[in-house]
Amino acid sequence: MDELIKYILQFGNLNQQQIELISSKVTELHLKKEEYFSEAGKIPRRVGFLLEGILRVCYYNNKGEEITRFFIEGQKLVVDIKNFEANFASSEYVQAVTDCKMMVFSREDWDELLSIIVGWDHTVNKIIKKNLIDKLETKAPMLEHSPTERYLAFVEAYPRIALHIPLSYLASYLGITQSSLSRIRKKIR
């Protein structure tokens, strides 16, 4: 719980009463490897904060191929914000790549925090903006490089993730086939 409050305080101020309210609304969730936090075709009903583990966001393209859009590691807010706020079914999955520990708010509790805590929406928007910028800074430069350079950049930037994810997820994220990734890894060794 302390990690969540410490994270939120980087983006806004909270008094002790607000901290206690947030603490009363959050529950701990453990996801086993390959379990879903949210699923395509369903309306997102919760907001999470990842404490431990690795999650991935993926979808199926029009050819039925599974595409990994990005990975979430470390202390990050986890929500399909567009569909959560619009109350629409998601087109993506959020899946545990490793066992994960999260703090989770239900939709009702999240909405209650928005209505009670002055400035909560501003704080949340700052968190979402920071997460979006982080994703863009990670993904955009990779698109300009060769597959080998993308792989090396990923391993350098995310050594822990690279060690714990299946090659198929990494290949999908890098936009290459698994066999191409295997060849790249053989050349580098």
Features:
189 residues; Jelly Rolls; four-stranded antiparallel beta sheet
Structural notes for this entry:
49% of the residues lie in helices and 24% in strands. It has 189 residues and is of the alpha+beta class. The model has no long low-confidence stretch (mean pLDDT 92).
Please sum up the structure shown:
With 189 residues, the chain is of the alpha+beta class. The chain is built from nine helices and eight strands. A hairpin with a 5-residue loop joins β4 and β5.
List the helices and strands and how they pair.
Elements (H helix, E strand, L loop, with lengths): L1 H8 L6 H10 E6 L4 E3 L7 E7 L1 E7 L5 E8 L2 E3 L2 H6 L6 E4 L3 E7 H10 L3 H23 L4 H11 L1 H6 L2 H8 L3 H11 L1
Antiparallel strand pairs: 1-8, 2-7, 3-6, 3-8, 4-5, 4-7
Helix pairs in contact: 8-9
- Rg, rounded, reads 18 Å
Give me the count of strands.
8
Overall average residue pLDDT: 92
The description of the largest β-sheet is: 4 strands, antiparallel
Spans where pLDDT lies below 50 across 5 or more residues: none
Given helix and strand content, the structural type is: alpha+beta
Q: What is the number of helices? A: 9
Can you tell me the CATH architecture of the domain at 2-119? Sandwich
Kindly state the percentage of residues in helix: 40-55%
Could you name the CATH class of the domain at 2-119? Mainly Beta
**Which series of helices and strands comes N to C?**
HHEEEEEEHEEHHHHHH
What would the CATH topology of the domain at 2-119 be? Jelly Rolls
- General form: elongated
How many angstroms separate the termini?
A: 42 Å
